[in-house]
Amino acid sequence: MAKNFAMVNKMKKIKVIIIRTAGTNCDYELKSAFELCGATVDRVHINELISSKNKILSYDVLAVPGGFSYGDDIASGKILSNEIKYKLGDNVKKFALSGKPIIGICNGFQILVKMGLLPKPENFEQISTLSYNDSNKFECRWVHLKTEKKNNDRTLCLWTRDLPDVISLPVAHGEGKFVADKKILDDIEKNNQVVFRYCDKNGKDTVYPQDPNGSLNAIAGVCNKKGNVFGLMPHPERYIYALQHPSREGYDGVYGWGKKIFQNAIDYLK
Amino acid sequence: MKVNTIEILNLNDKQLVELSRKSVLSLSLVEMKEVQKYFRNIKRNPTDVELETIAQTWSEHCKHKTLTGNIEYTEEKGGKKKVTKYKNLLKETIFNATMKLNKDWCISVFKDNAGVIDFDKTNGVAFKVETHNHPSALEPYGGSATGIGGVIRDILGVGLGAKPLANTDVFCFGLPDTKSSEVPEGMHHPKRIAKGVVSGVRDYGNRMGIPTVNGGVFFDKGYMANPLVYCGTMGIIPKNMSEKEVKPGDLVLVVGGRTGRDGIHGATFSSVELDKESDVSAVQIGNPIVEKKVLDTMLKARDLKLYRAVTDCGAGGLSSAAGELGEKTGLVIQLEKVPLKYKGLAPWEIWISEAQERMVFAVPPKNKNKILNLFKKENVEATFIGKFTNDGKLLLKYGNEVVANMEMSFLHGGVPKPTRKAVWKQKPIKKQSPVKVSAKTLQEDIKKVLADINVCSRDWIIRQYDHEVQGQTVVKPLQGSSITNSGPQDAAVIWPYTVVKGTKKGIVLSNGINPEYGKVDTYKMTASSIEEAMRNAVCVGADPEKISLLDNFCWGNPNKPEILGSLVRASQAAYDLSLGYGVPFISGKDSLYNEYTIDGKTYSIPPAFLVSSMSVIEDVNKTITMDLKNAGNSIYLIGITKNELGASVYSKVKNFKNGIVPDLDVKVSKKIMKTIFSAINEGLLESCHDCSEGGLITSISEMAFAGDKGVNINADAIKTSEKMTIAETLFSESNTRFIVEVSPENVVKFEKMFKGIVVSKIGEVSNDKLLKLESKKSKISVKENIKNLQKAWQKTLQW
Question: Would the CB atoms of B474 and A28 count as touching at under 8 Å?
Answer without folding.
Answer: no
